Amino acid sequence: KENFDSIPDLEFNPIRAKIVHAFFDKRNLRPESDGLADEINFEDFLTIMSYFRPIEMNMDEEQLDRFRKEKLKFLFHMYDSDHDGKITLQEYRNVVEELLSGNPHLEKESARSIADGAMMEAASICVGQMGPDQVYEGITFEDFLKMWQGIDIETKMHVRFLNMETIAHCY
């Protein structure tokens, strides 16, 4: 994990700790795994980086749907820090506070209000009208999929690497 400290682009990212944590989250490395890895090998690194690959033009609808779900599962795992299959209000508050921590004009209480409002909106999208005695316990992955419906995660969550075409040199 300490090797990630030397990546300049991560240094100022407000959710740096969550990103690094995601690289070692076994749920992102292998199906039906849980916990954290102490270290990752090159194959594990490539597995994580595959979540950030751009879409390919020749993908059919089924491939695009699977690709989208893989990316969203990765994001879901970043938010679900206690690995219980739900993003609770407290987990969501932590992420929002981290994201907004670089803004000196925004107090912690304001960040908390933003998170609370977003969680209420998530409940209305996923559960609908709730009764006064109902409590929304957290966002499941199925809820997460509903919330991201219509948002173009496929093109927003990617890293574009240098794309060099092979040039044949004939002398």
TrEMBL record:
Return one Gene Ontology term, BP aspect: cell differentiation
For whether the record's keyword set contains Cytoplasm, the answer is yes
Under Pfam families, the record lists:
EF-hand_1
Q: Name the membrane topology term.
A: Lipid-anchor
Q: Which InterPro entries match?
A: CHP3, EF-hand-dom_pair, EF_Hand_1_Ca_BS, EF_hand_dom
Keyword terms, alphabetized: Calcium, Cell membrane, Cell projection, Cytoplasm, Differentiation, Lipoprotein, Membrane, Metal-binding, Myristate, Nucleus, Protein kinase inhibitor
Q: Which SMART domains match?
A: EFh
Look up the domain of life of the source: Eukaryota
Task: Quote the protein name from its UniProt record.
Answer: Calcineurin B homologous protein 3
Q: Which organism is it from?
A: Pampusana beccarii
List the lineage, top down. Eukaryota, Metazoa, Chordata, Craniata, Vertebrata
